[in-house]
Amino acid sequence: MRIDRIEIYHVSMPLIYPWRTAYGEDAEIHSVLVKMFSGELYGWGETSPLNAPTYSPEWASGVFSLIRDFFAPILVGKDIGSAEELLSLLDYFKGNYFAKAGLETAWWILYSKSLGKPLHKLIGGKSEPVSVGADFGVQDSIEILLKKIEAAIDAGFPRVKLKFRRGWDINMLEAVRDHFPDFPFHIDCNAAFSLKDIELFRKVDRFELEMIEQPLCHWDLLEHAKLQKLISTPICLDESITCPKAAEQAIELGSCRYVNLKVGRVGGIWNAKVIHDMCMDAGIPCWVGGMLESSVGQGLSIELATLPNIKYPSDIFASKTYYVEDLGSPEIVYCDRGKVDVSKVPGTPYEPRPNLLKKMAIESAIIGDI
After folding, report:
1. What is the pTM for the complete model shown?
2. What are phi and psi of 110, to 5 degrees?
3. Distance CA 338, CA 335 (A)
4. What CATH superfamily classification does 121-340 receive?
5. What's the per-residue H, E or C state across the chain?
6. Facing residues of 235 across strands?
C-alpha cells in the first residue's frame, strides 16, 4: 500500500473542567492527529502526549515537529505492507513512541479500509461491546468526589479509578471506603512516589484495592519489583511500559501483576498487541488506558479493548464526560451500562469534524503531493 500524502494537525481540545493528577493539571488536551492517504483512501490516527512532558518525556508540539520533519518524509512514497514494516522504517530513531503511534494508527485505519474490515477483526478481537470504568481526578473536595462516585455506581460502571497524590491520599481513601466498602476501586499515582514511601503503600493495603497504578518513577522496573514484594495490593505498570522490551523485562523481574496498554505510549496498535500477547502468555492481565483523546483516538482504544487478555474494565469514556463538543465524530456513547460498542464499519467510524479541526488546530502540515 503506497503512502501518497500525510497531513498532520496539532490541536488543543478544551476540557469541561481541568484534569488534575499527581503531576499537575490540564485545562486542554493537546493531541496530534494524522491523516494518511493511499490514492483515494485515507485513514485518521491520533496520539495525545499532552501539552508538556509531564506524563512522559514527549509532548504534543515536539511530536508534531518530529512527524513533520523526520518521520512523515520517510514514509511518503513508500509501499508499506504492515505496521511492523512501518515501525521498522522508523526504528533507528530512538524512543518517541507517541510520535510513531500517530503514524502507525493512521496506517491501521487506512489498511482496514483497504480490506473493508473493522480494525478489531484484523488484530484478533471480538465483535462484542467492551467493558469500561469511571475515572476521577483530584476534585475540589471529598464531598464532590463521593457524589461523583455514587453517580458512577448508579450508572452501572463496574469499577472506579481514583487519582492519588500527596494531600489526596489516605484521607481520600478512608472517606471513599467508608461510603463504598465493597465496590472495586484502584488508584493511579502517575509515578509520583518512591520506595521511601513504603509505609504509605502498606497503609493502602488495608483498603483492598484492585491495584495501584504506576506508584514509582515513570521509567522504573526494578524498584516496582521490590515494592511488589513488600505489599499485597497488585501493582499495575503504565508509564514504565513503553515498548515490548520494557514489558519483557517487567515480566522477568516480577514488576507488576497488571499492565495498562495505551496505544500512544507504546508506539501504536502493533506494539500494544505484542505486549498484550506477552502478558497473556505470562498470566498477567491487561486493560486499556487513555489520554483523554478525541473520539478518533478513543475509537482505536475500543478496538484494542476487544482482545482476549483485556481482563479489567478499560479507560474509555463517553465524549460528554470531558468535552462540551468532541473534536471527533461520531461522539463516543455508552451502548449499555458500563459498555461501549465496537466498530461496525471498515477501520473505525471516527473522524475529526472539519469545523472543529480548523478551530482547534494550533499548527498543521502536509507532507507529499496535494
Report:
1. 0.97
2. -60, -45
3. 8
4. Enolase-like C-terminal domain (3.20.20.120)
5. CECCEEEEEEEEEEEEEEEEECCEEEEEEEEEEEEEEECCEEEEEEECCCCCCCCCCCCHHHHHHHHHHHHHHHHCCCECCCHHHHHHHCCCCCCCHHHHHHHHHHHHHHHHHHHCCEHHHHHCCCCCCEEECEEECCCCCHHHHHHHHHHHHHCCCCCEEEECECCECHHHHHHHHHHCCCCCEEEECCCCCCHHHHHHHHHHHCCCCCCEECCCCCCCCHHHHHHHHHCCCCEEECCCCCCHHHHHHHHHHCCCCEEEECCCCCCCHHHHHHHHHHHHHHCCCEEECCCCCCHHHHHHHHHHCCCCCECCCECCCCHHHCCCCCCEECCCCCCECCEECCCCCCECCCEECHHHHHHHEEEEEEEECC
6. 212
Cell of 233: 495490593
Amino acid 45: pLDDT: 98
pLDDT tens column, 26-77: 999 999 999 999 999 999 999 999 999 999 999 999 999 999 999 999 999 9
Is the Cα dihedral 272, 273, 279, 282 positive or negative? negative
Kindly list the distances between the CA atom of residue 254 and the CA atoms of 226, 240, 309, in Å, as whole numbers in the listed order. 9, 13, 18
Residue numbers annotated as active site: 163, 262
Over residues 18-27, the mean pLDDT reads: 85
Tell me the one-letter amino acid at 281: D
Type of residue at 287? W
Range 5-116+352-368: architecture per CATH = 2-Layer Sandwich (3.30)
Q: Could you read off the pLDDT of 243-290 as tens digits, one per residue?
A: 999 999 999 999 999 999 999 999 999 999 999 999 999 999 999 999
**Residue extents of the structural domains in the chain:** 5-116+352-368, 121-340
Nearest CA-CA partner of 36 in 324, 299, 366, 286 = 366
What is the Rg, in whole angstroms, of the alpha carbon atoms belonging to the chain? 20
The reply to whether 5-116+352-368 and 121-340 are identical in fold is no
Phi, psi torsion values for 218, nearest 5 degrees? -65, -20
